[in-house]
Design brief:
Elements lengths: L1 E2 L5 E10 L8 E8 L5 E7 L10 H9 L3 E5 L19 H14 L1 H7 L7 E11 L1 H9 L3 E2 L17 E5 L10 H6 L5 E2 L7 E6 L16 H4 L5 E6 L22 H18 L5 H12 L4 E5 L1
Parallel strand pairs: 4-5, 4-6, 6-8, 8-10, 10-11
Antiparallel strand pairs: 1-2, 2-3, 3-5, 7-9, 11-12
Length: about 300
């Protein structure tokens, strides 16, 4: 047991094995939850490239303190698996990532039972998927986004019926402006958001400039602008790709370290999901009011 950033006791259980036939490497998850409470909503979180269930503690802990049960799988591209760009398996990892989330959602009851009997304390009607960076594209697929092929034809539908809301943090934009490296190694980074009908919050940094796209920070708002309502948008003016260090304190790739910015991201996601789940609309409304009075540090929009 540990104390959360908000002072509310939380507990974490890891690793929990999840059946994933044909994956080659076993699928494991970490579950973080408030020590007490019932009818808790669930967040299934997809990490960015190379991370694992041990990353993103600042987000998971804060969400658990806010009353969510957070389930974090380790995807195949985790650095602990040693699968690099040139590995023949890399080309299909985007599909394995999506399959990972399906395996977690399909096996959620058993996962929660293994995590100290949490199954009796959650609300299975209120399940969200959230992701950062590559994880945001993975989560987007569960929310209904598709991947365009080389001819611009949308691929298969990977949405999951158990999910009723989500959040995409630093999500891949449309793929018509990929750099040559991205086009060669990451051709699946061509999302079609026109079919992403599930309510979702899109979080973007005003100074997030990707080396994978020739566009600027607005690339990371495509998931909002190109998807149907209902959607929310949070733009953090000074945020770069890690938005203050969402993966963890002192993470090597964090170039804009700011714990307050990380807390804003976590709290915005919590507020949006509580509103989408019709549990509490006050926090989301308050975030919009604070943005209006905040002098441009962040902005909130909705449709």
């Amino acid at each position: 047991m540990s104390s959360s950033p908000l002072g509310r006791p939380i507990v974490a259980v890891k690793p929990i094995a999840v059946p994933a036939p044909g994956r080659g490497v076993g699928l494991q998850v970490k579950v973080t939850a408030p020590q007490s409470g019932r009818d808790l909503p669930v967040i299934v979180f997809s990490h960015g490239n190379a991370w694992s269930l041990d990353g993103y503690g600042p987000l998971a802990d804060r969400w658990a303190a806010a009353g969510f049960v957070v389930v974090q799988p380790t995807h195949l591209d985790s650095r602990r698996n040693g699968i690099g760009w040139e590995d023949p398996r890399f080309a299909t990892i985007w599909r394995v990532r999506i399959a990972d989330l399906h395996a977690v959602l399909d096996g959620l009851g058993d996962i929660l039972c293994q995590a100290g009997g949490l199954e009796a304390r959650v609300d299975r009607e209120r399940v969200a998927v959230v992701g950062h960076s590559w994880g945001a594209q993975t989560a987007g697929a569960i929310l209904g986004a598709r991947v365009l092929d080389a001819d611009g034809v949308p691929g298969e539908d990977f949405s999951h019926p158990a999910v009723s809301a989500g959040a995409l943090i630093a999500a891949t934009g449309t793929g018509d402006t990929l750099t040559p490296f991205a086009a060669e190694h990451l051709p699946f980074m061509r999302p079609d958001y026109s079919t992403m009908t599930t309510p979702a919050l899109v979080v973007a940094g005003g100074k997030d400039r990707s080396q994978l796209s020739t566009r600027g920070p607005e690339w990371f708002t495509d998931a909002y602008h190109l998807s149907p309502a209902p959607k929310g948008l949070l733009i953090i003016a000074e945020g770069e790709h890690t938005l203050g260090g969402v993966a963890g304190e002192m993470a090597a790739e964090t170039t804009d370290e700011d714990p307050a910015r990380v807390a804003l991201v976590a709290d915005a996601v919590s507020a949006y999901l509580l509103d989408a789940f019709r549990l509490d609309d006050a926090a989301w409304a308050a975030l919009g009011d604070a943005a209006a009075a905040g002098g441009g540090a962040w902005s909130v929009a909705g449709k």
